[in-house]
Amino acid sequence: MKKVTLSTLQKKKQEGTKITALTAYDASFAKLFDEQGIDTLLIGDSMGMVLQGHKDTLPVTVDDIAYHTACVARGCERTLIIADMPFMSYATPEDAYKNAAKLMASGASMVKVEGGEWLTETIFGLTQRGIPVCGHIGLTPQSVHVFGGFKIQGKTEEAAQSLVDSALALEKAGAQLIVLECVPIAVGKAVSEAVAIPVIGIGAGVHTDGQILVMHDMLGVSANYMPKFSKNYLQQTGDLRASVSQFIKEVEAGEFPGDEHSFK
Ligand code: KIV
């Protein structure tokens, strides 16, 4: 099977083929997802909530992500591996270079950072140093205390425009992928159309260039509440492998997320 690279994802956007992504934290699930044909696996700082049982993602450390990235990398043959940079690990460009290097050495092919315009110097510096960057905008969970909770973003015209502007700024700085979280469907569409790089949505409607879900949510086993934008594929199919292939099938067919999983 051919290895998935950033060129593969870029080609998918150009051809209008949807990108499929899940979070993963260990070698066994990574292997299962890899074998079913998932394009991208994210070692997300969501591990703070779904693995470690915290209320948010803030306690996750670079060492946590590095350890789980190495586990996932051992299970994968073809999937593109993205490692999340945890809270305060990229507060300055120098912090970002040092910590991203550790995650790349652990087996990642790209790192993800949460935020908009303030990150442009960091993203430029990382890509110049050979580290591909995925931006993450919309509901950025590391800023949960700034938002006053896990709230839908981009609800006013001004807030929606600001997300489009952030996506353009990240792209200009060198980001090669964007995750867009918890925004109305129309904002998912506007952001995805504004940039040439692929936009992977989570709770951002059906018009983004791809979809990502937290694996525990899509299997209905999360210790936390089930977000409205997720779907329990294990309940639907009754089988682990079938859950993943059904998720891929529905994303590629534009059937997931449906209206019931999206924000108006
Ligand atoms: O940490 C994570 O799992 C994420 C996804 C929700 C995109 O950032």
What does this structure look like?
By secondary structure, the chain is of the alpha/beta class. α2 packs across α4. Strands 1-2-3-4-5-6-7-8 form an 8-stranded parallel barrel, surrounded by 8 helices. The protein starts with 5 loop residues before the first helix and ends in a 12-residue tail after the last helix. The protein has helices at 6-15, 27-36, 47-50, 62-75, 93-105, 120-128, 144-147, 157-173, 185-194, 215-218, 233-237, 240-252, and strands spanning 19-23, 40-43, 80-84, 110-114, 133-138, 177-181, 199-202, 210-213. It contains 12 helices and 8 strands. The chain is 43% helix and 14% strand. The model has no long low-confidence stretch (mean pLDDT 97). It is globular, with a radius of gyration of 17 Å. α6 (120-128) links the parallel β4 (110-114) and β5. The protein has one domain (6-261): Phosphoenolpyruvate-binding domains (TIM Barrel). The protein binds 3-methyl-2-oxobutanoic acid (KIV). Residues 23, 42, 44-46, 84, 136, 179, 202, 212, 214 line the site of 3-methyl-2-oxobutanoic acid.
